[in-house]
Amino acid sequence: MHTFGIVKLAAATLFALSGVSAPVAKQLNVVATTPDLAALAREIGGDAVAVTALAKPTEDPHFVDPKPSHLVTLNRADVLIEGGAELELGWLPPLLDNARNQKIAAGAPGRIVASQGIRMLEVPATFDRSKGDVHSLGNPHFVLDPLDAKIIAGGIADHLAQVDPANAAAFRANLKRFNATVDQKLAEWQKLLEPYRGTKIVTYHKDFVYFAARFNLEIVEELEPKPGIAPSPAHLAKVISTMQATKARVILVQPYQNRKTAETVARQTGATVLDMPQQPGAVPNTSTYFSVMDNLVRSLAGALEAKP
Amino acid sequence: MNPGDFQVAWEIMKWPLAACLLLPPLLVYLGLHVVRREVIFVDLALAQVATLGTCIALLLGHHFNDRITFWISLGVTFLGAAFFSWSRTSRKRNVPQEAIIGITFVVAAAGVILLLSRVAGGKEELEHLLTGDILNVTRGDVGQRAIIFAGLAAFYAAFHRRFALISSDPEQAEAQGGRVHLWDFLFYAAFALVVVSFVRLAGVLLTFAYLIVPAVCGVMLARSWLGRLLIGWGIAAAASLLGLWASYRLDLPTGAAIVVVCGLLLGLVSVVASLRRA
User: Fold this and answer.
1) Which long-range contacts does A266-273 make (Cβ < 8 Å, 24+ apart)?
2) What are the C-alpha distances in Å from B239 to residues A109, A257, B235, B247, B251?
3) Which fold has domain A188-306?
4) What is the pLDDT of residue A130?
5) Which of residues 41-70 of B touch A (CB under 8 A)?
6) Is residue A270 within 8 angstroms of chain B, CB to CB?
7) Distance between CA atoms of B13 and B244, rounded to whole angstroms?
8) Cβ pair A38, A32 in contact under 8 A
9) Per CATH, which fold does B3-277 belong to?
10) Nearest CA-CA partner of A186 in A216, A143, A220, A145
11) Given this chain, do its domains A28-185 and A188-306 carry the same CATH topology?
12) For residue A14, what pLDDT is reported?
């Protein structure tokens, strides 16, 4: 220890004497499991961080194919942001085991679990995997509620400040600006969707639950009989009759979901199949959280206006 | 690659590398038997039956990595092994065994689809069973398989003569009074154990590639069991090294990369073989 101190001192002196300035503070390597969390990290981290997302925007966040680059990225990460609540249960744990990076171990300041602090919806009272139940901790698709996005952003700012105290003030300033923008945009979005309060909609997977709760829409059915289980003919027949009874007129789908199933149901009910990609970058010009939300709110309002 | 990069690559690829070098030699040996018996698709069929067993376990609410899932899968596969050894020796009727194997494969595959339609994320699980996850193997996975495989290798080595005779000339074996039925079942049962434990690690595609491609290369280039075995081992090792390297450098799914390299090596070997004949 003592000799090491002397070496360090000598090195520092050498640095000072040679007139070489200390290397420019390096950007933090921030890794997010999904592009939406990556977008939030960019808002808060600004120039002080380099952000990588593991899942592609068009990939189902529940199922990501592991590749060597994922391990390299995780191995070099200073910070990892995961959705939590078992969103990445199927693929993240083995990658983390093999990436062997203590900086992002569970409980380390470099590990951010987005679901912490979120009021989870649909937490099951009983849980039975054999009945096809998943998500014992509740529905993990909460990023689409702007108020939840503020909570996640707050968590990111706290952790980044711990890992990189030199930039703590910048992170807090970015958070403040982000929150102010959310407040302003949320009012705008609510105004756009207000005419459709109580409108009944159908989704493929249970991935618009938080969005619907925030904007007062009512989800009457999912095309999947249970989360992650492929639609069966009997269930689709039930969906069709529910849609006819409730006059639901749009079906929301993601790029990685089976659009053909939605189209079959739409043909029977006269509904519209609406692409509502939640991940930044899934369609052009949606690289930030705000552009994604703008796109979703405007597409939905447009579809509902066209189909009164 | 600077030294730091190499360190990262080694950390990430060392257990996949260990799995791909330590485990395939036994598969290559079994592959020689399978090629000899002309039951090429028997492992695909058994792998599919094993997958069917896994799906039954998933449907019962067990997790993919639970121990009980392995035992259920193995039990179902033993049934398949018994069926194959019975169908081989009772071919008095005019049905070739390849047809039985093909039918087993198709029915098991369809059964898997039916069962997984009731399991959350079934479609993805199906793909996972096909391509495996050789990239994420752990020290425990590799060590456990290495022990099982070493035991089985000793078993096959001890009775190599008998298995070789039954594989190449079952009538002769029967004439000598060996209990062909029983030995055939033992062969398939041990084979099932190999397939089940390797498929869970590497997926159906990679298992088939390690079993058949090096064996076929060996048959093309050599006549003796030993010669074929050595060539097969060389091909398997080369495919592992090249495939893992390509997967890392080009960031490709690991199992599929090795399978494609196996195919390329087979092309190369067949060119060499035809040049030697000419």
Assistant:
1) A268/A240, A269/A240, A269/A243, A269/A244, A271/A202, A271/A243, A271/A307, A272/A303, A272/A306, A272/A307
2) 41, 35, 6, 12, 17
3) Rossmann fold (3.40.50)
4) 59
5) 59-61, 63
6) no
7) 8
8) yes
9) ABC transporter involved in vitamin B12 uptake, BtuC (1.10.3470)
10) A145
11) yes
12) 45
Between strands A200-203 and A111-113, the pairing is unpaired
Q: Look-up: residue for tokens 């198709």?
A: B106
Provide CB contacts within 8 A for B55, sequence distance 6+: B111, B112, B115, B116, B119
Residue ranges of chain B with per-residue pLDDT less than 50: none
CB A29 within 8 A of CB A76: yes
Chain B touched by A225 (CB under 8 Å): no
Question: So what's the pLDDT on residue A136?
Answer: 80
Topology of domain A28-185 in CATH is Rossmann fold (3.40.50)
Decide: helix, strand or coil at residue A53. strand
Give yes or no for B8 touching A (CB within 8 A): yes
Q: What is the pLDDT of residue B51?
A: 86
Question: Which tokens in the block code for residue A222?
Answer: 């999912």
Out of B12, B15, B118, name the one closest to residue A68 (CB).
Answer: B12
Is B61 close to A66, i.e. CB distance below 8 A? no
Where does B90-179 have alpha helices with state H?
97-116, 122-131, 139-158, 160-168, 170-175
User: Which long-range CB contacts under 8 A does A282-286 form with residues at least 24 apart?
Assistant: A282/A35, A282/A57, A282/A58, A282/A255
- pLDDT of res. B124: 72
- Whether B167 contacts B36, CB under 8 Å: yes
Residues in contact with A76: Cβ distance below 8 Å, sequence separation at least 6, in sequence order: A29, A101, B8
Low-confidence ranges of chain A (pLDDT < 50): 1-4, 9, 11-23
CB–CB of A98 and B12 under 8 A?
yes
Q: Are B97 and B91 in contact (CB under 8 A)?
A: yes
Alpha-carbon separation of residue A126 from A18, A123, A197, A224, B223 (angstroms)? 67, 9, 31, 20, 63
Contact check, Cβ <8 Å, B124/A72:
no
Question: Letter for the amino acid at B152?
Answer: L
- Distance CA(B50)–CA(B278), nearest Å, equals 43
Scanning A145-174 for CB atoms below 8 A from B yields none
Whether A228 and B120 lie within 8 Å, measured CB to CB: yes
Name the 3-class secondary structure at A81.
strand
Q: Which residues of A touch B248 (CB under 8 A)?
A: 68
d(CA A226, CA A228): 6
For the stretch A121-134, pLDDT in tens is: 988 877 766 566 56
pLDDT of residue A129: 63
End-to-end CA distance of chain A: 75
ipTM score for this prediction: 0.70
- Chain B contacts in chain A segment 42-81 (CB below 8 A): 60, 62-63, 65-69, 71-72, 75-76
Q: What is the DSSP letter of A59?
A: S
- The residue among A83, A97, A57 whose CA lies nearest residue A135 is A83
Cβ atoms within 10 Å of B180's Cβ, excluding its own: 20
For chain A, domain boundaries: 28-185, 188-306
Q: Report chain A residues whose CB lies below 8 A from the CB of B254.
A: 67-68
